[in-house]
Specification:
Blueprint lengths: L1 H9 L3 H4 L3 E2 L6 E2 L2 E2 H4 L3 E4 L3 E9 L5 E16 L7 H9 L12 E11 L2 E14 L1
Parallel strand pairs: 1-4
Antiparallel strand pairs: 2-3, 4-6, 5-6, 6-8, 7-8
Length: about 130
């Protein structure tokens, strides 16, 4: 799913992205700080995370499980002066959960959260995609 989300963000128009850039590297830590803190206004997409929970168990040991694939994207802004396209960009990225390249899933969700770290505003998108496995 990371590939699809990253491609969708890269495909956004220059008007939507404005002064934001899209990173192809993962948001690893360097010197104890996440890379997105060192590169404000650069959007990072993390690797897929998988979780499985039983959905329907049968007495013979068969059944179905819910597989949830979670992908997180991050970027940081100066909290004192948000870019004029901040709200538009957040709304646009949030809607990328509906990207046509993401198929075979039953639910497509995106939660957006923000937190302050000093004078920086961290914006995080958590995309969740659910499908059934047997």
């Amino acid at each position: 799913m990371r590939t699809q989300i990253l491609s969708a963000i890269q495909g956004l128009s220059s008007t939507t992205l404005g002064t934001y850039r899209v990173a192809t590297e993962l948001p690893f830590e360097a010197d104890g700080n996440p890379l997105y803190f060192k590169n404000p206004k650069k959007i990072y997409v993390d690797v897929d995370q998988y979780s499985h929970t039983p959905s329907f168990d049968l007495l013979d040991g068969n059944g179905w499980v819910d597989e949830i694939i979670t992908v997180r994207a991050f970027f940081v802004n100066d909290a004192k002066q948000l870019p004029s396209n901040y709200e538009t960009l957040v709304e646009t990225i949030k809607e990328l959960r509906l990207t046509s390249g993401i198929t075979g899933v039953l639910e497509k969700l995106c939660q957006v959260s923000t937190e302050y770290s000093g004078d920086l505003l961290v914006t995080e998108f958590e995309f969740s995609f659910k499908k059934y496995l047997n």
